[in-house]
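Dear colleagues,

I hope this message finds you well. In preparation for our joint manuscript, I am sending the Peptide/nickel transport system ATP-binding protein (Primorskyibacter sedentarius) sequence together with its predicted structure, so that both groups work from identical material. I would be grateful if you could confirm receipt.
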Amino acid sequence: MSLLQADDITVRDGTTTLLAPVSLRLDPGEPLVVLGETGSGKSLLAQALMGTLPLGLEAKGQVTIGAQVLNSGAPDQFRGLWGREISVLPQEPWLSLDPLMRAQAQIAEGHCLVRGLPPREARIRAASDLSELGLADAAARYPHELSGGMAQRVAIAAARAGGARIVIADEPTKGLDAARRDEVANLLLNEMGQSGGLLIITHDLALAERIGGQLIVLRAGEVVERGATRAVFAAPGQSYTRDLLAANPENWTGKAAAAPAGTAVISSRNLSLARGRRTLFRDVSLDIAAGQVFGVTGPSGCGKSSLGDTLLGVIPPLQGQVQRQPGLHPFAFQKLYQDPVAAFPPRRTIGETLMDVVKMTRSDPRDVDRLLDGLGLQPDLLARRPGAVSGGELQRLSLLRVLLRRPAFIFADEPTSRLDPITQARVIKLLTNATESDGIALMLVSHDQALIRNTADAVLPLTPPCDPARAAAKKRVAIALQ
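The corresponding structure tokens are as follows:
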């Protein structure tokens, strides 16, 4: 007997169909992966299955969970099942974590209130969950003290704390390095076991292949292909699926030649940084020139984002100095955030926020339309608030906002972690083209080594100084790609 069955699920926004009829079945012990590009309707499908669609959107169809038959158009029917029968790991960890609670307390709350464990046992289980995810030292931290990858792992532990047999994981590994991605995949598969159900919503090809099971490929709200994951990856039947697989950064052509070294827009000398009692990195010296793409890689939590924030002057260094090209306005140094939800005013439309930037920088309003087209975004998104825009679309809108400021330096913190391979390639090309044509110094941070290898002019492999396995790694110099 299936754990979950969905029949003819549709999602509409007024007269506009966002998700065409989709049917699926989730069996015990066999994961189901929903793969597709940004904005294809993957998250809408997950929300319809949970009864959590945003206001204004209407679902139709039938969802059967165990012996209960539910109307997807009546979300109140689902609430009694949340956490106990079906749980969701949201795409944005910042939205699922309480900013006023420490990590261990958030996880213990699920064990206690949903699973029904005594408080002391709930705290012990929460500590064990954090340890399994490599976060034993993060138990007392608040969400704002966690890196994006660390926050995602805390959200995973909180989602599985209630003991629900069915877990819907929406982009569970975005922003994580390959090792952490595989750890999370193993954790979710182990939690599923032989009797649980696991539905993965993702654009991450490596994750989809690692999870295996059954696969559904979505495009523009419609199913274009389905079958066993390994069979589809080995011999995709549709041209769109073939294009999606071919856009993997592993298949990109490497950068032809390094950009000529010009005037350094930003530099650091012997830079060291600590958070609390933990040293993130030591003695980092670098120069990023105009027109150069400078790549930074490293495992989740090693200080990649903190390095960029230190260069921008947001975080003071423990030791060392940062030099910025004199004569440039502070607005010339910009950050493209890893979590765009936290960077947009939630109660204003996207268009209102972008027009603020146009007025502030005295830009041409037509630049908005030009950049929308270049980023593959529809103009009607400007009328929406951030909560009504997909994570991938919001990330591209973040890039649009940064480019409107005509920056001299951009710190791009995992700028494509929410994008499918096709859109990722397009956005990286736009970003690198702008770097070359406008003479922007770009610091590109990513856990994806293939993306950095095939994009950057120079690379800094950042590793924690306390990691004995990588004690000999080079942390001070940028290695120019040959």
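For the figure legend, we might mention the following. Residues 421-438 form the longest helix (18 residues). The chain has two domains: 4-251, 264-480.

With kind regards,
E.M.
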